[in-house]
Amino acid sequence: MYITAIHARGFRDLRDGRLDGLVRRVDLKGPSPAATALGDAVELAFAALSEEGLERLLRRWNLIAEGETPEITGTPFPDQASWTDRATARSLVADPAKPNLRVDLTLSLDPPLYGLLRAESARDPRVGTALGQGGALTLSVGALFTRTFDTLALTLQSVRIGDESFPTREGERPHWMPRLLRALATRLHRHDATTTTADTATAALDALLSQEHHGSWQAWSAALAPDGPTLRVARGPGGAPILLGDGLPLRRHGARALRDAALAAAVHLSGADVVWAESARPWLAAAVDGDASALEQVFRVHPGGTLVPTDAPPEPQRATRTLPTTLRETEG
C-alpha cells in the first residue's frame, strides 16, 4: 500500500495544500512548518483508524501532559479524545473560530488488501464495480476541536473506492469496512527523530526473539553497512537491552550512528508500508527498491527535496460582466 494523493485543509501552516501523483519515493523540501503540517495531516488520517494511533498523534502535538492519559472514546474507531490542556491546540488550526481540520488521502492498495475487497465483490456488487474502476481507496477524515480546545471530535467522513462511495456510520457501513480499515491502521510509521536508544534497543530485541520477525531483525542489523557498523542488540546492566555496533556500545560510533539505528528500526522493525522521516539518507530512499523491498513508500523531508508543500492557489474568480449603461438627459 502507498499514498498517491494528499489533500489537507484547515491547518495553520497548510490551510489548503494538495499533492497528487505521488510515487513510491517522495522527497519533500523541509523541514518547514508546511512540511510538518502535511505530515500531521497524513498521520491524522491514519489516527482515525485506531486508538493507539490517535494517542500517538496527540502526544506528538504536545497536547498531553507528562503522565497524562487522554480519554478516547469510540469503537471500533475512535470518535472523540479529551485532555486537560486548553491552549496548545490553538496553534494547530488556521482559524481558531472554526477549528476544524480535514484530510483526504488516496491510497493504492497492495495485493492482500485488493484481494480482501475482491473476495467481497460477490456479496457486494458495488465493490466489484469500484475495483473495475481501478480500485484506488480514498479516506476522508474530519477533526473538530471544541471551543475550549481540550476535546477533539474525529469523524471518518467517507470511504471511496474508485468512484463508489460507501457509508461509514455505525450500522450503515458494509461488513467488510472495519476489517479493511483495521488492516490499514498500522501501515504508516512517522519516524520521530527523538526516539530514544532504549526504545530502539527494545524493538530490536523483540524482533530478534521473534521467529516471525527474525528476517526483519537481520535486515536492520545490516542496514548501515558497508559504510557504518553492523548492528546488534544485547543485554546490558540490569538486563536492559543495549545497542552494539561492530561489537562495541553503539554510542562509541557517535550520535549519527544512534540516529541511523533508530531510523533503520523505523524501516525494518515497525511493520509499516510507508515511513515518513526527516532525513536525506540514501539507504532510506533505497528501502523501496526491488521486489523484496522493506517498504512500499518513503517520504524523505530534507533541504534538497523537490516537492514543496504549499497552499493551493485560490480558485480564480469568475469575471462579472458589466453591461454598459447609457445615461440620456431629457430636454425639459
Describe this structure in words.
This protein has 332 residues and is α+β, with helices and mostly antiparallel strands. It has helices at 33-47, 51-60, 111-120, 125-132, 177-184, 197-208, 214-221, 255-268, 282-285, and strands at 2-11, 14-19, 25-29, 71-73, 80-82, 100-108, 137-145, 151-161, 164-166, 188-190, 231-235, 241-245, 248-249, 274-277, 297-302. The chain has two domains: 2-187, Rossmann fold, CATH 3.40.50; 196-270, no CATH class. Strand 11 and strand 12 form a beta hairpin. The termini are far apart. Mean pLDDT is 90; it is low at 319-332.
Would you spell out the secondary-structure blueprint of this structure?
Layout: E1 2-11, E2 14-19, E3 25-29, H1 33-47, H2 51-60, E4 71-73, E5 80-82, E6 100-108, H3 111-120, H4 125-132, E7 137-145, E8 151-161, E9 164-166, H5 177-184, E10 188-190, H6 197-208, H7 214-221, E11 231-235, E12 241-245, E13 248-249, H8 255-268, E14 274-277, H9 282-285, E15 297-302
Parallel strand pairs: 3-15, 10-14, 14-15
Antiparallel strand pairs: 1-2, 1-6, 4-5, 5-8, 6-7, 7-8, 8-9, 11-12, 12-13
Helix pairs in contact: 1-2, 3-4, 6-7, 6-8, 7-8
